[in-house]
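Support request, please re-run this one:
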Amino acid sequence: MFVAPVQKIQLNTTTKQLHSAVTYGRRFFAVKSSIYGFHNYDPTAAKIFKFPHSGFPEKLNGEMKIIPLNKEWDKPTSLLVESVIPKGDFLESDTHYFCGGLPALMQAARKIEEIAQISSGERVIYVNDGKIPKTLQSGHQAHVHPSEWSSDDCSTINLIKTMLRGMGILFTQNPTNLSNYSYLHFPFSYSDFAKDPLGNTRLYLNFFGERIRQNLKQVNGVSDDDHRLCRLVTESLEYHKELSKKIEKQQGNPSFLECGRAYWSPDVKAMKKKQATWKELGIDCEFMTESEIMQETLLKKNSGLHVLRIVKDGKFFPETPQRIVKYLEDNYPNFTHYIASTEKLCLNKQNGSPVSINERLTDGRTQEISIKTFFGSLGHNQVFRDHSSDKALKPVWPEVPVTGNSTVWRCSIDVKEFEQRFGIIPLTKEDLAKCVNQLLPLANLSNLHVTLWDGEIIYDKVVFNLRASQGANFNSLVADKDDLRNMWENLDRYFIGDLEIVSAASCSKKTYISNVPEHVELSSNPQRPTTFLHGLSGIGYSVSAASLPTIKERAPKG
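Re-run finished. Output below.
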């Protein structure tokens, strides 16, 4: 892991007390949390940092809230893939096995629906390790967008500048400069580089080589990979939308909301370029009017922002996986979900088709299950292949961590001011629930994502819970603290209400050079696939429900 050098700029913020809120230009600052809390935040700590005096209850009615606010991280585990010769009495199983996060759950959902349509007696098992994912603090927006290679932050010039900053040759950026801040960082340590000079050189050469490949293959600023990624997300969100309708009908709450998404920046030229890129990919977007911004966002009036609405985007909820699992359990008797750690996957030595899976249950017992097909999307947990001729296990695919800050915030607005802004007088709980659904998730050109979680009326205040994330610290498990400072400044300058940071933590995503989702197929038997999906990098929720044929298809020739 690389360690960032000592930064050369000093943030002149220790005397600035961020304590009052902006509402209709009446006051200057939205963030009321003391800046001293920011200075005490340590992104290198392997835990969620809860800011003091946040006033956010960790328990509701005696039960722990679904988003943890003060927790040590669970260490990643590993899955061993081993080739075996099936025993003579081996019988083919009727069990389809899925393990991992939301992408695995959505493939299980597609499979159980397929089985139900043909009235098959085959079973679907969905297993996860039960660990609370760090990503619950992330924005979890549903967004159709191209790969990061089309962004200015990944331009050749900015990549060179980013490399020089990481090496300490150029000064680091000022995170309070909201018009010219890049979320991408290459933290660099000469001592760590010397430990594996060949591997590290190869990593960065491949990264810059991919930039060159993208330059050669792009047409009007987008590549085949961009089109493929958009197809994946579009198909996925359509599936989520239909499934969510069924879930809301039975449970009263949706698992996904296609409400659109707002993208903002004070730089109108950059926003028009972003609009042109999305239009090239067939993504429906339009600039919002001042009136629409007031009714559909928590952005300030007359803030100088240019805001695009991406029509088909939306948001997921912290409870989304649980709601989907409950729906499948209630409607499909052949579907089973339980908590276990998958430890070993045995494959047929001749064709790579799955034979069995070894699990460790929550009570410590182990069990082996014969399976027909396998699908895994394991997030941080690594997958290793056992080569008997080698002493060391080797990963099935290469990957690199990219880490940002994931946070939870509270936003309080006076009821009277809220009623005035949204024209809802008097405000009721029912009105607020409708308003929560119409308030768009937000993002900006610096990779800041802010998603409204829920809202409630507390005395004379309307209180919202927000999830926000930002940053891409390449090849590091530690977030760059400047990204949180930039987030802080953006919320302070552009949002209404009294904002208070509740918790923050480093949150890593695993990806590789292409920076788009990739699949690995280990079986040569199409009827008994052994499939892994990886490299989801921050777009895992959005692509989670794409069908396997679409996931596996190659990008069309340009």
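The CA atoms of residues 152 and 301 lie 27 Å apart. The chain has 14 helices and 26 strands.
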